[in-house]
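U., I forgot to send this yesterday:
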Amino acid sequence: MRFAALGLAAVAISLAHAGGAPQNVARPMNIVVLVIDDTRWDSIGAAGNRIVRTPRLDKLASEGIRFTQARVATAICMTSRASLLTGQYMSRHGIDRFGKALTPEAFARTYPGVLRNAGYWTGHVGKYDVGAARPTDFDFLRAYHGRHWLDTPGGERVHVTEQNARDSIEFLRARPKNKPFLLSVGYFAPHAEDGAKEQYLPQDWSAAPYAGVTVPPSPLADAKYLRALPPFLSAESNEGRIRFKWRFDTPERYQEYMIRYYRLITEVDAAVGRLVDELKTQGVYENTLIAFIGDNGYFHGDRGLADKWYPYEQALRVPLIVRDPRVQSRRRGTTRDQLALNIDLAPTIVSAAGLPVPDAMQGRDLSPLYLESKVPVWRDEFFYEHPTITSRDRIPASRGVIRRDWKYVYWPEFDYEQLFNLKEDSEEIRNVANDAAHAGQRAKMRQKLEEWRKQAR
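Result:
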């Protein structure tokens, strides 16, 4: 019965969106979700980066839709990944610290939980990070992260991205061929291995594409950007400043570590390519939706910071590519500039499977933005929230309302406000929260924040 319902849903969806003959209507779509770590929107070639080498992701973008204004609602791994699973803000799913897991009841309302209950064969490979992954939640599970090089039981030393590729292909080859499948892959790379001196530990083969390459310095490397930070972020005890000194505090270290970082992204790109090749070999590529997204952005020494956490553009904005077989050929390779969020991925996946989206999901199905002839009215703002990690001096809590024209951020542990006019100050350097001329805007944004805090629960 579940497969019959899925098949009928696939027919209805194809007829509703294709504007012509339906594609692959006899069976529900397979779905592959690829989550890359610590990678911001402009760290792939398709976004205009001329240094990083990502030919397979660029190819995926040329066959799908690239969302140029994708953001995360919380810029830290465990919370963002919980939002990807649940389609919810942190205020609702509650994953605000490392090691905290979703309850079995909450997991049942995630996209893998919903699809598995409907008859999909589900698998997870690589980084999970929403507590410990439960084997009972998936049909196939290979969860691991934290180190770039792994020692296998057979004595082989394997890079984590190579292991991701192998496990992904194992899932595809071992799956039952009479069921639709969902595969989620959490790449650990290019996340730094924080305990390693070199931070980024790529494979040897990825060195050749970067021979003789020089990475341009960050346009936000000038000391004025550091001085413009709130004093608690520019303080030397702040974790963003500490990690900046690990990775980017000299021109030489910046060059070495950025090249290493880009090499790790290139290795993920190759792993994605191998997965795509396997889908093609099995003859299921044209009936598989592939979504590629970053779990958060990353400071490349911008503003004198490293890592993520803080609600500036570099930490919030991520790559998002959706390669959906329902998209008409004339629309493939195009972009969308609506504000897409990480909480939108779960309802998009559930909807693509032809299933009702759980009421608990707070995101929106993205597919009308690229399937419908008339673009629907879309959001023009979103809510940002981040928990305290360890202490306010290390990584303080923050929350805010972010629009295309204005950004308002409140740091509750310091009772500190920021207000940026993004149309006039896209670099987010002039905090006008205390300017009398903007008192009305500040009051309006304060009110919006309180409304969002209630709405997000």
